[in-house]
Amino acid sequence: MRIDDDDFTMTWEMIKFMFFDTHNLALWAIPLGLAVLLRVITHKYHHQLIFPLCECFTFRSHTRRIHIQRY
Prior knowledge:
The protein is an all-alpha fold and 71 residues long.
């Protein structure tokens, strides 16, 4: 759902849509969970390649998903 800038008003319905809609909640929860997981891993293991490897795996899975969706 796209909302124009002029039509945006902060109402209870808008707050429920932004924060309590299951689709929007899933869109925010997955990256938040991955960020927390990365923080836990980097807290336990102090190696300089943990973050770059995580970025490589994330980028690889993202490009694979784009490649699969094209066909």
